[in-house]
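Dear support,

Our group has been running a series of protein-ligand predictions, and this particular one with fe (ii) ion is the one our PI (initials K.S.) wants archived with full inputs and outputs. We had some confusion internally about which version of the output was final, so please treat the block below as the authoritative record. The input we submitted was:
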Amino acid sequence: MDSGQEDASRSRDDAPSSGHQRAESRRQPSTPEFLREVSLTRIEGIRVGHVQKVSLVPGKVHEMRTLSLKPLLFEIPGFLSEDECRVVMQLAQLKGLMESQLMVQDGQEELAKELNLSPEEIFNLLDINQDGQLQLHEILTHSRVRDGIWLTPENLREIYAGLQADKDGDGLLSLEEFRLLSNDAFQRFLLQRGVKRSQLVRNSRHTWLYQGKGAHQVLQDIKARVTRLTRLPPSLVDLSEPLQVVRYEEGGHYHAHHDSGPVYPETACTHTRLAANTSTPFETSCRYITVLFYLNSVDGGGETAFPVADNRTYDEVSLIQDEVDLLDTRRNCGKSNLRVKPTKGNAVFWYNYLSDGRGWVGEQDEYALHGGCVVTHGTKWVANKWINIDPDYQRQARYQQLVSQQPEDEDDDDDLTLNTDVESPSIHQDL
Ligand code: OGA
Ligand code: CA
Ligand code: CA
Ligand code: FE2
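Confirmed final output from the archive:
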C-alpha cells in the first residue's frame, strides 16, 4: 500500500464509532485568538444543476455545475486543455507508475502473537454490533480494511464451506464456531486459492508529480488554476500533496472509499506530522478538497461513482447488504446515486469535510464516499489534486510556521501565511 490514501479508509473503520468531537474543542487555550481570523472560502452549491461562471485562465470563462450538495460536488468541463492532459500523462509515464496496491502479507500474524489475543478477544473486536455473532459484513469489512482484499459475500460463503466454519449453516459465525477455526484460517485459505488483482480494493497504477518551482510549466499552471478554483490561500495549496496521476487498465477499478479520515480527538494528519507535539496512534490523510481531473475519455465504464450522494440519511450498515454492496464498484456502480462520466479535460471537485461553522474544517463528510467503476473498454487516466488542511487549526498554523522557517523557502515567506487577502470573490458569479 502507498501514500496514506488507504490509511484514510483504514482509520475510518478502525476508529471507534462514538466520541465524535469537533476540532475546535481541542484547540490549545495558550494560542492567541487573533490567529483565527482566517476563514476558508467554501464555494456555494446553491442547488443541484446550478451553473456558475468562473474565471480561471485569462480570456476564458469556465462553467461550473453543482452535481450534489451532499457532498458539495462540482463539475467543470474543459478545466484542462488537450495538451495539458497529454503532458501530464507523458510526464507520469516518463516517471513510471507503480502498483497502487501490493499484495503483501505484512506481519499480521506476528502482531497477533505479540498481543497474545484469545479467540474471544479477537471475536469481540470483529463483532462490531456486539450481538455475539459475526455477520458477513463484519468479516468483509475486516478483510477489506486489514488485508485490502475485497471479498464478496459469495467468496465468504465459499470460504466458510471450504473450512466447514459455519457448522449450523445460518450464515453467521458464533463464538463457538469461531473458536474452532485456527488463528489465520481465512488468510491461509485465501493464500492457497490465490488472490487476483480484481479482488483487491484497488486495481490501478499511479505516480506523483511535484508542482513546485522548477516543475514543468503545465504542472505549475494546474496548481495555480486549482488555487483560483478553490479560492483557498495559495500557501495551503502549495503545501499540499503533489499531483497524483492514476492509470487503470481494462478491468481496473477502485472500490468506494473516503480520500480523508474521520476527525477524532486523537487523530493526527499525515501532512502536519511535523507540528504534532505528541505521537498519536491514529494518523490519517486530511484532504479537505479532492480535485479529480479526467485526462482521457474512457471507451467503456470507469465512471466515478458516489453511492450515497444527496441521500436523505447516511446509514453505513445499509451500504453492505447480502444482496447489494454499494461499496462494490465492480458490481454495483449502476446502483450509485451519482456517476460522473470520465471526459477528457473535465474536472470534478468536492469537499471531504463539512465546515465547522466558523470558517475552518469541520467533521468528515460521510457522503463524500466515492470510487472508480470498473473500466470495461480501454484505459482510464485521472489525476488527483488533494488540498491538505488540518481540522485542528492550531496544528495547521504551527505546521506552516515551521515550514516557513526552513531556509530554502526564504523568498516564499509571504506566501506561507494563512492570510486570505488573496481571495477574489469576483471570479465566481452566478449564471
Ligand atoms: C481516487 C479515486 C476515482 C476515479 O483516486 O482516490 O477515487 O474515478 N478515483 O478514478
Ligand atoms: Ca455481530
Ligand atoms: Ca453459524
Ligand atoms: Fe478517491
